[in-house]
Design a protein that fits this description.
The complex is a heterodimer of chains A (about 200) and B (about 70). Chain A has helices spanning about 1-20, 30-55, 60-65, 70-75, 85-90, 100-105, 110-130, 145-155, 155-160, 165, 170-175. Chain A has about 200 residues and is mainly alpha-helical. In chain A, helix 1 (about 1-20) packs antiparallel against helix 2 (about 30-55). The longest helix of chain A is centred in the first third of the chain and has 29 residues, at about 30-55. Chain A is elongated and about 75 Å long. By secondary structure, chain B is mainly alpha-helical. Chain B has helices at about 5-30, 35-60. Classes of the chains: A mainly alpha (about 200), B mainly alpha (about 70).
């Protein structure tokens, strides 16, 4: 994918170079069309391809944990504890391993991905311009919403037939009772105690 | 405002240079796996390529049209 995009960029650079050296070529009709392709159509397509590639890349676990602040969160995905919600989701492939962060933290609404990208830019600003936060002190603005859990679990037999879930289904769906904050599934990324926890090593 | 042929050639060169620099920065941003690579692409590469495209389109709009008396 990136290889094809780079080939397209190189082709565009070659065409643009022709008009940088010999702009007078555009006096001929054929070259006018080539100039339109080389200086307008192909660069436009390169922008679209670049946006697509960068957006896809920003959804990967590797990208999320490439920020220093997020490194302990990446480590917490390998905690050897069945009660550790993010770890058991990743280790049992309940979420795609290479999109683990995004699967649970994406805002599943129309403008959710855009909001996530703006949030990401804010974090980059904090990292490089303002003061980066202490990883253990990071909290999701507005708290973790049940909708993010229910996006996958809602409709699943094991979830729906669980008597505890069934008894409070309406409260869960309306976010009145939090999946994480109500004391049922409260061990998320336990960053503060990470050094005292056991880790699972996947077989390569 | 209309430009002479030399002015339009100059605009084409400026447009080409902006597009080339923008595309080179895009290649760097694609090969560099870092949170800042997205910023480099979105705020530098896209701005330069977009400006290059705009300059090229301006050169099309501002082209000198032959005077009506000279058309025959």
């Amino acid at each position: 994918m990136i290889g094809m995009l780079i080939c397209q960029i190189v082709l565009s650079i070659i065409l643009a170079s022709i008009f940088l050296v010999r702009p007078s070529l555009t006096s001929a009709t054929g070259w006018k069309i080539v100039a339109f392709i080389g200086l307008c159509v192909l660069p436009g397509l390169c922008i679209v391809g670049g946006i697509n590639t960068h957006v896809e890349r920003s959804e990967t676990t590797r990208f999320c944990t490439s920020c220093h602040v997020m490194v302990p969160y990446g480590r917490s995905l390998y905690v050897d504890d069945a009660n550790h919600i993010p770890a058991q989701h990743l280790q049992n492939h309940r979420v795609p391993v290479d999109m683990a962060c995004y699967s649970c933290h994406e805002d599943y609404t129309i403008y959710g991905p855009l909001k996530d990208k703006m949030q990401g830019l804010k974090r980059i600003y904090m990292q490089y311009v303002s003061t980066p936060p202490d990883p253990a002190a990071i909290r999701i603005p507005g708290g973790f919403k049940n909708a993010q859990c229910l996006h996958c679990h809602s409709g699943a037999r094991s979830f729906e037939e669980n008597p505890v879930h069934a008894a409070m289904m309406d409260s869960l769906k309306s976010n009145q009772v939090s999946c994480l904050g109500s004391g049922c599934h409260d061990t998320a990324h336990d960053i503060a105690n990470l050094d005292h926890l056991k880790f699972w090593k996947p077989i390569q | 405002m209309k430009l002479t042929a030399i002015g339009i050639r100059r605009l084409l060169q400026v447009s080409s240079a902006l597009v080339i620099v923008g595309l080179l920065i895009e290649i760097v941003s694609l090969l560099w796996f870092h949170p800042l690579s997205f910023v480099l692409f979105a705020f530098v590469a896209v701005a330069l390529i977009g400006l290059g495209i705009l300059v090229y389109l301006a050169s099309l709009v501002l082209v000198v049209t032959p005077a009506a008396g000279n058309s025959s």
